[in-house]
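Researcher: Structure for this, please.
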Amino acid sequence: MSRRKLSLGRLEAYVLRHTLIGVAVSLGVISFMILLINFVELSRTLSGRTADISPGLTAYLTLLQSPSLILILFPFAFLFGVLGAFANLNRRSELIAMRAAGVSAWRFIFPAAAASATIGVITVLALNPLASVLNGEFQAREAALEAAFQGASAKPIWLRQGDGRTQVIILGRRQKPGLGVDLLDVSLFRYAVRPDGHLDFRQRVDAQEAVLKNHQWILTGAKSAEAGAKSETYGAYAIPSTLDERTALEHVATPAAVPFWSLPGVIQRTEGAGFSATSYRLQFHQLLATPVMYSGMAVLAAAFSLRLMRLGGMARLAAAAVALGFVFFFLNQLCVSLGRADVLPAFFAAWTPPLLALLSGLTLLCYTEDG
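Model: Predicted structure, token format:
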């Protein structure tokens, strides 16, 4: 009995090793293609919006942006990698030998699914925060290049702060993208919140410059006008803020630029400021569902690879697996779009495609293995 357990353990480790090699090769090909395409695309777009950009700077920006794009296509690495690994084992009749020896397909597919889920957890906890930080740096660098090119015509940004009693809407242009919160040509609109939730206008403040520091907006060259009163001019004017230098612009960034660990806080602060946090909530649930998506793609690919080579039709099955993988990928993108538009709840939009992929693979595996 102990030899049998040891033998099964070796078989599982053998299959797992081939699976990881296949996934690594597939990931390498996908990463190379994304880097190449992204480099060409950035060279084309940035050269049209900035005066001069060197190939070195373009390559640097490509390295900043590409990890987040690679993570989007990460499920295909498991689909192609597991499909290639199991098809290769089938071609060499190794899967046939294992099954003839009484080893259930569930035993050597489980390591691939478990490894995929484990990599999914690592992706969420470690790779996503790293990619988000790099993507945030890319957005800051791109904004700085565009602001330097456009000058005073740089796009304005809107901020909002407040609590249950007061709401303040802030309009301005960032003076130094990526370096603190320093705004030019600022207008602040302060409202009082009624018990029924409606807003009453209380004050407008226009200023040449506004700096957020120590939970205060320090305004320079400010002109303040309260409702029903004359305007007054101030050399310096301070307004309390519920924002801080680290979190003030988080809701301005795209959800992909917010790390997994920061998403719960961003959701809470965004909703507290009166903004919709649907995109961030959807991103959070998508990340939680990542291990399910990865394992679902692995099980789906393995289930399509169990047909005996001598019976033929492996090429059609492999093509069907790839086609079905693309269907689930585009279904996931469709659900994300519907979730961002509030057509579907964020939880439903994020979890439905991964669960469908996993259940489809398990169903096909049950049909193939157990009849």
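Researcher: Any notable elements?
Model: Residues 2-148+278-370 form one domain. Residues 1-8 have pLDDT under 50 and may be disordered.
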